[in-house]
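Q: What would this complex look like in 3D?
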Amino acid sequence: MSNGTKPPFFMNRTAFTRARFIIGFLAVPVLLYLVYVISPYAQAFSIAMTDWRGVNAEPGFVGAANFRRLLDDNVFWTAVRHNGLLLVLMPLGTLVIALFFAFLLNAGGPRGVSGVRGARFYRVVFFFPQVLAVAIVAVLFQQVFRPDESGMLNAPLMALGLEPVGFLSDPGVAFWSILGVLIWQAVGFYVVLFSAGMASIPRDLYEAAQIDGATRGRLFFRVTLPLLWDTVQVGWIYLGIAALDVFAIVWVMTAEHGGPDHSTTVMAAEIYRNAFQYFKFGYASAMGVVLFFFTVAFAVVALRLSRRERVEF
Amino acid sequence: MVSRTSARTAEVGLTRGQVRERRRLRLGPLSGLSHVALVVWTVLVVVPIVWTFLASVKSEDEIFGSAWSLPATPRWDNWARAWDQAHVGRYMLNSVVVVSLGTAGTMLFGAMAAYVLARYRFRGNRAVYLLFVSGLAFPVYLALTPLFFVVRNMGNLPLIGPLIGLDSYGGLVLVYIAYSLPFTVFFLSAFFRTLPQAVAEAAFVDGASHSRVFFQIMLPLARPGIVSITIFNVLGQWNQYQIPLVLLSGQAKDKWVLTQGIADISTAAGYDADWAALFAALSMAILPMLIVYTIFQRQIQAGLTAGALK
Amino acid sequence: MADKSISRRELLRSAAVTGLLLPGALAACASPGGGGSRTPAAAATGATSAANPLGIAETSPFEVVIFDGGFGDAYARNIHQPLFAARHPSAQIKHSATKEIAKTLQPRFAGGNPPEFVNNSGDNAMDFGALAQDGQLQDLGALLDAPSWDDPAMKVRDTILPSAVELGTYDGTYCVLNYANTVWGIWYSTKLFGDNGWQVPKTWDEFTALCETIQKSGTCAPFTYAGKHPFYIYETILTLAAKIGGVEVLKNIDNLAPDAWKAEPVAKAAEAFAELGAKYLLRGTEGLDHIQTQTAHNKYQVAMLPCGSWLENEQKDTTPADFGYAMFPLPSFSESDALPYGTLHSRPGEEFFVAARSANPRAGMEYMRAMLSKEGAGKFSELVSTLTIVKGAADGRTLKPGLRSAAGRLKEAGENVTYFRFRQWYKELHDEVAAATGQLMAGRLKVAQWAERVQRKSDEIKNDTSVKKFTRA
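A: Here is my prediction, written as structure tokens for the whole assembly.
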């Protein structure tokens, strides 16, 4: 963009039209983004250094006090730990399941080069959870996880004479229930995405591998996965960021909003709690800043690891 | 399993049909298992959704009763109540307007920015890219209050103010676009980077302008990416709740979007909520999305694959 | 060349647009404060008269925002607003209702443009400490001293419960109207108890014996509470603690006194309920919410549960016609209890306030005066099945059985009424007590650990200078 600010006589015509094009294309999106996203975020950043309680006129400047308090906030660090677990497990679970299904749907057929029967149907149905608003998902799964004979999961368990599982009420189990729901919801999109990627893999590659006698597992690891690796990486980065951002499922579904006893809480829930329940907007913003840097750090590391060649004009 | 070489030698001398037969046998048991996996996942996905639809015609204590029971008599009055209370018709129309404009704007501006960032080297490129990507990293609700002031002040601009201020579709659409940009730019620029350059280079040689190359060559090539991100944005904006809550006040109820209508009859704290009507309203919100997706999934799939096949 | 100059002009133009818009938009969001809107426009006033003692401007509109929760907003639209409009026909009321009080209103308070009248209640309410800290709450002293709506010879102050004034006072100023008068107790079905010949227990031994009987009978589970919201059970623990050790126990807790949570009466009460939890709870209680447990109660799957007097209204759609809601006070723990049998947890709740920096605060206060009329309060009680702080307003009204029972118990309790305030003052402490109590009831925490944990949070808040402290005498 800075090209545009150089004196024009440095440029030849092509360089100039190129710069004009770049600026022309970036101007509107960047402007919208600065006004509606960056400026409120900048505000929130500056609030992190105040004791603002949301309704008062002049927030007092407290410097780094909020950040210092954060260091001793056990609940917040519990939340960070949960986010860390999610960061690893949610993308892993989602991608493995999605790849497995996408592979079955595209190369799981009897000849190994076509999808299983009903592939189209499965692709449609698997996507459904993605269509549901998070609030709906949360309400739904409260019903699924109910701890008595009305629960969709516990009803059959109890009919078999087993003890009901406190999917959301046992602090040792609740987190895994949440993870399950997150993966449940995310898989569909990646099945569709990977399916599209796999469909673009030339058939003859499969045929050739098959003539070579490759098993299906080998087909997947030798042909499919390497050719799909780019898409998988993008998916992994996005899921990682989503894992750091988990909020509504936890907030709506769990007891005590992140409980029982903080066993499912995540950073975003703690931020929300401090802002809209305790009206400590300053402190909440400080947490937001920390979350921001965690996410940026993750994105930078992930992008660096997955850096690939760029084609440029 | 048999090693690759031995498998190949074993196949030497067999007819084509025999080879196929062999292969089928080898894949047989796995195929059965994979069908089981697919069916199990289908059940996992479908049951909760079917349950919502069933709950929408149950009575209150049937909903809170046994999970697997069917409604004694379907109570369609839940739907009628939800339609009236949540003004589903009106709000759905509002949602359609806002989401169509929002998604269209997002895709246009997002694709433009992503393309430039992905395919042009210039000073500040990385910075602008990171600026966009960093937007993924901050929780929206922390920005809600400042955002309220930004939109309020935009409303004071001369001429266009009333169109983009508080309680206006325009304001909401612009905000939706802005908040959808990080993900769109992030995902699409990854896509643009992987596109082949030969076609574009040929076009440049033929004297095509930069924007022409973009609109007539690169954009069609990027169709799979565009299609999938469009789905993502439609879903995201359709289900958005926090932003309209702050930007469309109770004084502008005629402009409310569907999620606000639903929240109006639901409640996190669960006081005297009309649960049956809530599930009916949820069903009304889900149904069009499922139908639209099911109708267009052919095109979506086609879009995804056609582009990817180059 | 021509081509070039045009594009340069375009470039300049886009730069100019960026340059012009951006600082404006950025400066614009110099919230909290929102650029100069700090000083509110002079509040609307009118001449005072007998018909208009608070001196409202008869033609100025004002906004009423109702929390759309357990009570809905029909009471405001159909009872209070017509009442107000009958005397002030020209003052337009802009009514709205929301479940998201904090998110919809907080920016307006920060921006200096708040609605006049707010029902700040529910899970998503704005923090009163924060509002009080910044002078957003209108001093309602003039309302207390104004003549009442019904009788010009009587001040508003004398028509309402004194505890309502105490609870609505922040920093020595009465500024929050707690309108509903909630009574807590153990709820049961007179039908279920009658059919089985069960008696209301008066002592703790009778209570546990009754639980044992019910358990053995196999009819249903003896006891449950809203497991997902442990407030429902820590409420009973604290009330029992007050009954054992006297009102001081709760005052110490509210005042964040050292070791307040480790006091013996608190430990005894917690131990008693932890035992109850271990033996007599409905299966799955800890994972059920209030609606689920209350519905189980309506289906005769459980005999008793602790709740406030809003219960009957909340359950009106699932309660069988002959259920016969009734409540009894917590049984006496031992002979040496500091407070007698019949002691109740009861307090005015459901907060309303007038925004001090709104355009027309006087109208908000006048609206409150209408709410506090016999008619306004009486019809409210009938409609939402809840008592109010207006003395005698429910007399002669047709009350549902549950409310009638609660009103009767409250009358019997007389002066022996307890309450605690930390839930409103320090929401963080409330959250910690809830989390720890959930674990206590599930048997994952011992009483001593529970007390230790809660006390630590209490001390933490006490030492946190950023949190405004309150005290009660």
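A: To summarize the key features: Residues 1-11, 309-313 of chain A have pLDDT under 50 and may be disordered. Chain A has two domains: 2-47, 65-305.
Q: Very helpful, thank you.
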